[in-house]
């Protein structure tokens, strides 16, 4: 965990949770991508069509599936593909607590694809209380958003008796995870608890520690096995049946009214990702504090694999831009974001220090973290060799 080294093909570090390396020090994310040419994608798509046909035939005059959505490029693409396959999807928008204006446009735009949508917004008083609690306890301000995007659509699946959910990419396939999970195409409770970014925090912890009444945590609670079985709810990853390309998804979405920026957003290498939740810049920064990589590193890996940049270029980009202190995001100053959860700048910086893995960063002879002129930390090993 503390002796950081990097994938020889991309720039993922050994500190990334769940990542594995082969004997040539190639990470499991690159291994999965390198195996793509060996996959019979036509056969996979036929399998997908068979699954969709089966669910459509079970309820021909009703909704055939649910597309969980935050209004982003990928959920646009998912909904568009379902329409192309002749399905009648119900799009379930889970609205972030702090929704950026461009994110609001994109969420509203989902309707104009020609689909019914349900927008579900959770109690902002409770949500911001959880935002601050999860920031303080597990170092993730976006924990409520992460769990609700997985729980709310499944609850709709159960309550409206629409068993099939169409998720996007399999994060463990795209980002690198245990090799034995790379062919998994089902999202269920086990996947959520292991790979869904819950960081060991459970909904009943909020009830016990924050004394939040159980009836205020309804939408954060995953349905029981009995409820799921009564409907036959099943979630599949579209990215396991179709070659996943986020740039292509953004281009397809843009041709249907999706908007994104001309220039790359803060803390990223692209202008079309994470445009909804203003808290995401803080989320990605804490990933850097804990593990020594962030969203720029993620996109470096994907762009290397897609042949858009070389590893040498990715190293230079990460050395210059990765891990910057989150002064602003999507035009919102950090102070404005922190005010939403009643957190001062000093309090935030103390929380940052609490979750910083000092073994990864340069410290002075007193063990204090060294920061550069921008207030950002300095990795000990940043040559990426």
Summarize, please.
The protein is mainly alpha-helical and 385 residues long. The chain contains 16 helices and eight strands.
Task: List how many beta strands DSSP finds.
Answer: 8
Q: Give the averaged pLDDT, no decimals.
A: 90
Contiguous uncertain segments of 5+ residues: 175-183
Helix content: 40-55%
The H/E string reads HHEHEHEHHEHEHHHEHHHHEEHH
Largest sheet: 3 strands, parallel
Please give a handful of descriptors for the protein shown.
single chain; 3-stranded parallel sheet; mainly alpha; 3-stranded mixed sheet
Question: What does this 3D model show about the protein?
Answer:
The chain is mainly α and 385 residues long. Helices cover 43% and strands 8% of the residues. The chain has 16 helices and eight strands. The strands form three sheets. A three-stranded parallel sheet has the order 1-2-3, sandwiched between helices. Helix 3 crosses helix 11 and helix 13 packs antiparallel against helix 14. The radius of gyration is 21 Å and the shape is globular. The two termini are 17 Å apart. About 2% of the residues have low confidence.
């Amino acid at each position: 965990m503390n002796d950081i080294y990097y994938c020889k093909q991309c720039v993922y570090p050994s500190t990334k949770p769940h990542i594995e390396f082969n004997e040539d020090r190639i990470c499991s994310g690159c291994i999965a991508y390198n195996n793509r040419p060996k996959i019979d994608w036509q056969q996979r798509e036929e399998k997908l069509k068979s699954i969709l046909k089966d669910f459509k035939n079970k309820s021909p005059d009703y909704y055939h599936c649910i597309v969980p959505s935050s209004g982003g490029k990928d959920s646009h693409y998912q909904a568009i593909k379902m329409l192309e396959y002749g399905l009648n999807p119900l799009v379930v928008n889970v609205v972030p607590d702090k929704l950026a204006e461009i994110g609001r446009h994109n969420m509203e735009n989902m309707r104009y694809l020609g689909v019914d949508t349900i927008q579900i917004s959770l109690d902002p008083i409770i949500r911001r209380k959880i935002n601050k609690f999860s920031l303080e306890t597990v170092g993730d301000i976006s924990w409520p958003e992460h769990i609700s995007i997985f729980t709310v659509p499944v609850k709709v699946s159960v309550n409206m008796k629409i068993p099939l959910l169409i998720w996007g990419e399999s994060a463990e396939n795209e980002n690198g995870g245990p090799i034995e999970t790379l062919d998994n195409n089902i999202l269920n409770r086990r996947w959520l608890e292991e790979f869904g970014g819950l960081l060991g925090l459970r909904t009943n912890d909020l009830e016990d520690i924050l004394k939040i009444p159980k009836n205020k945590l309804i939408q954060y609670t995953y349905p029981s096995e009995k409820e799921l079985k009564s409907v036959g709810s099943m979630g599949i990853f579209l990215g396991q049946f179709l070659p996943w390309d986020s740039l292509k998804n953004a281009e397809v979405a843009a041709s249907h009214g999706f908007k994104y920026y001309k220039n790359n957003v803060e803390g990223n290498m692209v202008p079309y990702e994470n445009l909804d939740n203003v808290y995401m810049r803080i989320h990605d920064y804490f990933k850097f504090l804990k593990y020594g990589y962030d969203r720029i590193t993620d996109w470096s890996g994907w762009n290397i694999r897609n042949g858009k940049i070389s590893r040498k270029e990715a190293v230079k980009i990460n050395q210059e831009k990765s891990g910057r202190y989150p002064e602003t995001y999507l035009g919102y100053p950090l102070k404005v974001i922190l005010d939403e959860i009643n957190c001062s700048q000093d309090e935030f910086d103390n929380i940052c220090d609490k979750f910083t893995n000092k073994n990864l960063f340069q410290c002075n002879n007193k063990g204090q973290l060294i920061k550069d002129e921008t207030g950002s930390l300095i990795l000990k090993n940043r040559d990426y060799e």
